[in-house]
Inverse folding.
C-alpha cells in the first residue's frame, strides 16, 4: 500500500465520511473486464498494487502502477485488466446515494 512520510493514505484504509463507500476490487489479467459506464459512475479509483492496463475502444492501451489515481466517469475506456500476467488490486471510493437519486439531464 502506498505510504508517504505521513503514513498510509486515508483514502485506502482510513475512516471515510458516512456519505462515501470504499470497495477493494481484484482485476485479473484475463479475461479483460469490459467497463460499464454505470459501474463506478462517480468513483475515484486507486491502484493499490499490481499494474492496471486500460484499453480504449480504438485499441490504445495505457498502464498504471501502484498509487495511480483514475476516474472512469465519462471516459472512453473500453476494458481493464491486470498487467504483466498478474491481478491488479484497486480501491474504489464512491458516494453513497439516497434511495431516490437525481440524475443528470441528457
Amino acid at each position: 500500500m502506498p505510504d508517504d512520510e505521513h503514513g498510509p493514505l486515508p483514502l485506502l484504509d482510513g475512516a471515510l465520511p458516512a456519505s462515501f463507500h470504499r470497495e477493494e476490487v481484484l482485476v485479473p489479467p484475463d479475461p479483460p473486464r469490459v467497463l460499464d459506464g454505470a459501474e463506478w459512475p462517480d468513483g475515484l479509483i486507486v491502484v493499490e498494487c499490481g499494474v492496471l492496463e486500460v484499453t480504449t475502444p480504438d485499441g490504445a492501451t495505457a498502464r498504471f502502477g501502484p498509487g495511480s489515481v483514475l476516474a472512469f466517469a465519462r471516459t472512453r475506456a473500453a476494458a481493464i485488466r491486470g498487467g504483466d500476467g498478474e491481478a491488479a488490486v484497486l480501491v474504489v471510493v464512491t458516494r453513497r446515494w439516497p434511495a431516490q437519486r437525481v440524475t443528470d439531464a441528457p
